[in-house]
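Entry for the shared binder. Reason: the reviewer on the internal report wants the predicted structure included alongside the sequence.
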Amino acid sequence: MLQPKKVKHRKVQKGRIKGNAQRGAMLAFGSFGIKTTVEGRLTGRQIESARIAVTRYMKREGQVWIRIFPDTPITSKPAEVRMGKGKGALDHWVAKIKPGRILFEIDGVDSVTAKEALRLAAQKLPVVCKFVTRRDYDGK
């Protein structure tokens, strides 16, 4: 019987974020959302800050879905350390974002409240976002 290979840790390098989002580009859960128009990297802290801004403005009514997750590790070396001596220690986690990706979705509130809540969330993020509405939303 074949034994599975031992998997070594995968080194993730910066690279470029190319192309548009293929997955997560349409509203799936809520009636309103914010969609990015540029690529970028969002840290876990930035995502959490935006989530808090949304829930505070909505006064904890309605529902919020976070459609991204920071799953890419970012390492860094301490200040004033010479080159070499291996890879730096884990610093934080980021989510790589492509243009067209839905970041947050909300439902259970009226469109005016949703637009303002998501505007406040977009202010917390380092990427340009636009407000999107579900096609079959009737506004009642």
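Summary line for the report: The beta strands are 32-36, 40-43, 63-66, 72-76, 89-97, 102-107, 129-133.
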